[in-house]
Amino acid sequence: MERSKHGDGSLYEPRVDLFRWLFSLLDTGETSMQPMRLTLPTAECVPTSTASCGRHVGGPMLQIFSVKLAKLPRPAAAAGPVKLFGFMAVRDLMDPLRNYVFNRSRDDPLVIPDLRSDPFVHLPGPKRGVNMQARVMFEYDVRIKGGAEEYRDLPLVEGVAVFSERTCIDEPAAWRIRGDRGGAVDISWARLTRAVEATVDVRIQELAPQQHGNGGGGGGGVDLSVSGFVPDITEGEAFKLFRGVVEKPCALDRISVAVSLDSDLILQFSVPDGDGSFHDVGKFAFRSTAHGSVSDCRRFGFGTVEVKVTWSALY
């Protein structure tokens, strides 16, 4: 499957290939499995304490920490904003259809304002936790919008990769995906051996008066960055969860991450300084469990934020 592409149809050629069959590569539909399937304890659960379950003790899951734009394809300009569209999706053997971690149309691309200060592709997915008892396929077709005319678009990366369950165990590692035209992205991922699914809902309940874009302050909103990390595993490697301008109270995209059981999930909120760098303005901390949910609401300098985390065993 090396160098097989979506665009020329080579990825779908009808030939005998174990991975094409295992991961239903010819089916481009989205996974129908939903998150939070085991948020409520089942009848077989045996509680060992008020916060744990004797049956669901975590399992091997894939966590993608970050995707970073490493090189632009020739002849893309290095200066100015970069507009990305296309998709990245994970296929596991629980349901091998596409579990999107990134999915943007050409009419609604992701804009990276400055590659030097923030080269990360912020990922709203996956839709649900990714099982990694066996190998996992990573499928991608990402392009750079070149202007109003489609012929100016440039391919960034296209194809598939297979992540082995025998590598990156409980420790993140970076791997570079290279495109045919000189572009490249760096992906950081790990296999967490005793993990549970955390579904994170973030709601901006209120913005400080000077932050409202249309509501009376004229401040144009707040440029917000949300990152997450698990201190026991990531050692400073953060999930890049959200980056964008919030102009009014709203709910951010729902986020699904894998967290090692009995570890802390830290959510860090940051806003830019005058020089373009970000400084932290507040954080939330949640202790992982096999089932249940927890909420917290806090007031920061830019506004009031409510976070709800729903825990679920994957199977």
List the helices and strands and how they pair.
Blueprint: H1 18-22, E1 59-71, E2 82-91, E3 99-104, E4 110-112, E5 130-131, E6 136-144, E7 154-163, E8 173-178, E9 184-207, E10 222-229, H2 231-234, E11 239-246, E12 250-251, E13 255-260, E14 264-272, E15 278-287, E16 293-299, E17 303-312
What does this entry look like structurally?
- This protein is mainly beta.
- The chain folds into two domains: 10-26 and 39-194, no CATH class; 195-312, C2 domain (Immunoglobulin-like, Sandwich).
- Helices cover 3% and strands 45% of the residues.
- The protein has two helices and 17 strands.
- It has helices at 18-22, 231-234; strands at 59-71, 82-91, 99-104, 110-112, 130-131, 136-144, 154-163, 173-178, 184-207, 222-229, 239-246, 250-251, 255-260, 264-272, 278-287, 293-299, 303-312.
- The strands form three sheets. Strands 1, 5, 8, 9, 12, 13, 16 and 17 form an eight-stranded antiparallel sheet that branches.
- The longest helix is centred in the N-terminal third of the chain and has 5 residues, at 18-22.
- The protein is globular, with a radius of gyration of 20 Å.
Main beta sheet? 8 strands, antiparallel
Give the total of domains: 2
The geometry reads as globular
Number of helices: 2
Overall pLDDT, averaged? 88
Pfam family, one: DUF6598
Protein name: DUF6598 domain-containing protein
Domain DUF6598: 61-309
Write a concise synopsis of the structure shown:
With 315 residues, the protein is mainly β. The chain has 2 helices and 17 strands. The two termini are 30 Å apart.
